[in-house]
Amino acid sequence: MAQYPEIKVCGMRDEANIKALCDLQPNYIGFIFYRKSPRYIGEMPDVAIDPTIKRVGVFVNASERTINEKRVQFGLDILQLHGDESPELCFLLRQSGAQVMKVFRVDENFDFQQTQRYEDYCDYFLFDAETKAFGGSGKKFDWHLLQAYKGGRPIFLSGGIGPNDIREIQQQSHLKIKAIDINSKFEVAPALKNIKLLEKFIIDLRKTN
């Protein structure tokens, strides 16, 4: 029996919304530290987060010092690098004890060999849709392209995943998908999630395998 992918809900900020999300027991909760994002978070919400839910910090071309400051302030378990960060920075950040996830933006011209430079310095790779701007696009890419990925790092799948994508996610069981990353398709406003919609999605995904 195939195991369902884990679930990461990203772009959280509102305290009551975070508390309601934690009651659904996602595997990961994501905080965005990119100032240009409408989901940017500046201060740590006053919410007790179950330690079994890993905290992910999303950064775009931030300095090692900034990332480490946020890692300590927010108690981050995973550092998600969504910009042009080097393998060297990934190596240095990994020394802090946190896990590192490098993001790659995929379209039909993407060369998956690019991931090889990061293989030894990251714990996960996240594949998102190609976009001119940094950060998530809310758009889906052709998941069949992932068949070209031959690396050893587990995959987080992102990019426009919505409430109606469960069956398509199930059809990717041949890929190394550790988790799916959901965000804007479950929002009523930037950084404010529709908890009922998330609850149904999480229940349906977890009961299907």
Can you give a write-up of this model?
The chain is an alpha/beta fold and 209 residues long. It has one domain (6-207): TIM Barrel (Alpha-Beta Barrel), CATH 3.20.20.70. 22% of the residues lie in helices and 22% in strands. It has helices at 15-22, 64-74, 87-94, 166-170, 195-207; strands spanning 6-9, 28-32, 54-59, 78-81, 99-106, 124-129, 155-157, 177-182, 187-189, 192-193. Strands 1-2-3-4-5-6-7-8 form an eight-stranded parallel beta barrel. The chain has a two-stranded antiparallel sheet with strand order 9-10. It is globular, with a radius of gyration of 16 Å. The model has no long low-confidence stretch (mean pLDDT 93).
What's the short story on this structure?
The chain is an alpha/beta fold and about 210 residues long. The chain is built from 5 helices and 10 strands; from the N terminus they run E-H-E-E-H-E-H-E-E-E-H-E-E-E-H. The strands form 2 sheets. It has an 8-stranded parallel beta barrel.
